[in-house]
Amino acid sequence: MGLPGVELFDDTDFRLVRPVSIGAEATIYEVTLRGTPLIAKVRVPKPYRNAVIDRDVRERRTLNEVRTMSKAHDIGIVVPHIVHVDLPNSIIFMEYVRGTELREVLYKSPETHLKFAGDLGRYLGEMHEHGLYHGDPTPANLIVRDGELCIIDFGLSGYSDDVEEHAADVNLVERSVYSSYPVMARDFIELFWRGYREVRGSFSEAEVKKRVAEIRRRARYVMR
Ligand SMILES: Nc1ncnc2c1ncn2[C@@H]1O[C@H](COP(=O)(O)OP(=O)(O)O)[C@@H](O)[C@H]1O
Ligand SMILES: [Mg+2]
Q1: Which atom of ligand 1 is nearest to the CA of 22?
Q2: I need a labelling partner for 141 at 20 to 30 A (CA). Which of 97, 100, 181, 198 fits?
Q3: C-alpha to C-alpha distances, 151 to 10, 27, 120, 123, 141, nearest whole angstrom
Q4: CATH 3.30.200.20 location in the chain
């Protein structure tokens, strides 16, 4: 079929249903395990990397994603349940979250969904408060299911209490919301910060806000 990594499901209990997304680093498949639909996130080999290093890199990233996802789950954040990890092949089998990407929800009915801004602020607040950052908290990595926000894609996440990593998360939220939904962006961001403050308090909020502004100044400087 020419799809990266499909042969990995041969001779396993997993049955391929369809490809869901082909990204730069990972290919996402819908599979079933004894009739239960699941998502398989496959980090496929990169032919331009040395084979040994490549395998090592993919394994480490897979392990990192699994660890940070379970940490997020432990602190009360809704993430897909992990069902099985095939480390040698760098595959994470997880719950299929049946919902709509926040990206789509915001386009279709912006007014009714500002509530998710506060939810996202509280989620990131909890993560940062526990020394965890997401790394890519854009509306494409958020799924709304039954009115509840679920965070996916911990591929760039990590552990840090450094305000720089926390501010980088928030900067990504602000940038993606301003560029994709300019009309509602101000309200969204205000509600986001309100949720964030609820969890972390105004001292941390001010500290992170200051650093976000600094990151933006640095970015402008580089552009010039
Ligand atoms: N557990 C899941 N449930 C439902 N859809 C998912 C799940 N994981 C990934 N997806 C879908 O696949 C897309 C890409 O997955 P993601 O983990 O974000 O990989 P990438 O690193 O390529 O961005 C997501 O934007 C989402 O639409
Ligand atoms: Mg993603």
Answers
A1: 22
A2: 198
A3: 30, 18, 9, 9, 6
A4: 6-95
Which CATH number applies to 100-223? 1.10.510.10
Encode pLDDT of 167-211 as tens digits. Answer: 999 999 999 999 988 888 999 999 999 999 999 999 999 999 999
Q: Cβ(124)–Cβ(196) under 8 Å?
A: yes
CATH hierarchy code of domain 6-95: 3.30.200.20
189 close to ligand 1 (CB < 6 Angstrom) = no
Which residue in 11, 13, 56, 136 is the catalytic one?
136
Confirm if 156 and 134 have CB atoms less than 8 A apart.
yes
pTM comes to 0.94
- ∠ Cα 17 103 164 (to 5°): 110
The answer, yes or no, to whether any atom of ligand 1 lies below 6 A from the CB of 63, is: no
Q: Is 136 a catalytic residue?
A: yes
Q: Please compute, for residue 131, the number of CA atoms within 13 A of its CA located in the half-sphere on the CB side.
A: 4
